[in-house]
Amino acid sequence: MQSGAPSGALGADPTVLIGTIVNPAGLILAKTVPQVRVPAFASPGLGASPTWHAFAADQVGIAFTDAIGVVGDQRIRVDLEAMHMLDATLAWAPGEFFDQAGVPVPQCARGTLRRVVDGLGRTGLRALVGHELEFMLTGPEGQQLPSHLWAQYGVAGVLEHEAFIREVLAECHAAGIGVDQLHPEYGRSQFELSIEPRDPIAAADQLVLTRLVLGRVARRHGLRISFSPKPFADGVGCGAHQHISLMAGDVPIFTGGPGPTGLTTEGEYAIAGLVDAMVDLQGVLSGSVVSGLRMLPGQWAGAFACWGVENREAAVRLVRAGPANPRGANVEVKAIDPSANVYFATAAILGAAALGIAQELPLPPETTVDPGTLTDAQLAEADIRPLSAEQSAVVDTMDGSAVLRAILGDPAVDALVAVRRYEVTHFPDHTADTLTNRFRLAWSV
């Protein structure tokens, strides 16, 4: 993949600035300042309680831990170099957490991704990341929209919501978001928006900005957007797939080599690292209490820890280079949904790939069939591990993962475990209908 240059209005002079962070529960939280306070928002930053890292997705609870409580104060500093204009007077910028002495807070997701990217750079590796975001249009209270004309990927969905689609594409362009495509998806009133690749931090920022644009446009049309992994119990799920390219210097490692499908040796190691760590990574990629409703065979959710060329049921899908893919070979991680914190998810994926390279992990055999069609004995023989649809087990695995703690650090993992365990504890035996109704708009903006 090649990176597109951001076209946001850097250096503009907004009347109002929204600064956002994404917390461990995947919630986008914000502070807003007038023009005169923009410099202070950048440095020394605005105060925020440590509990921002513990706000839960049920929009009520706080997942207190020994390290996160009511005592203390932190500072959110916006990155003005990453600022983009939402309209002529309203700007947005991503924020990071620091303590009052200016030291990065270890629970900060954007800061964690920055540390992982810096670590990649010290090994001579460079990454590009592209995002695919699935979402569902709903009524203002989350109710299902009439969809009598809907067909999977059908043009009727485009025409039914033509004004909405036109505005989204226009506002994304104005905000500097590189949209590759926007199309109706399999589910009723479901769409997917693909965003061009950029460096990992800019790509994660771009995804957050895209969600803000989608939310603003939807409101103008009397709609809301559900970013739930499973908006309706009887419908399909929503993913948030990541495509990653890795380069050693300027040389891509997923193409041009002697290995299977042109993989270089380092490319084989990187994919092996992702497959090997996928069960541990699941709590970061799809760890919400709703995620298990999507993480099932037959949902194209990547519900098996394996890899395959263009295999949409594998958690790790290799996309070949060639005339039909001018951006070059890349790896798509499918086991991600929109309830994930995009910064933590990207950090976990890149960290796992880097560990595979550092440890020279052998590439397992390619999965060339739908793993959901294999028997338990065949899965075991092929060393293919199903990902869990039981979220309490997913959280326990995340908590005990030495690999994940090595990548993200103990404070970040502890915060992720706390908010996800809160969800499991407070919604232990709810039906699919109850969970989808309760959390349909939990990650909306």
Automatic annotation (TrEMBL):
GO molecular function, one term: glutamine synthetase activity
The protein's name: Glutamine synthetase
GO biological process, one term: glutamine biosynthetic process
Domain of life: Bacteria
Entry similarity comment: Belongs to the glutamine synthetase family.
Entry annotated with the keyword NAD: no
Keywords from the named record: Ligase
Organism expressing this protein natively: Gordonia mangrovi
Gene3D superfamilies: Glutamine synthetase/guanido kinase, catalytic domain
InterPro entries per UniProt: Gln_synth/guanido_kin_cat_dom (IPR014746), Gln_synth_cat_dom (IPR008146)
Keyword check for Protease: no
Record Pfam families: Gln-synt_C
The GS catalytic domain, residue ranges: 109-445
PROSITE patterns in UniProt: GS_CATALYTIC (PS51987)
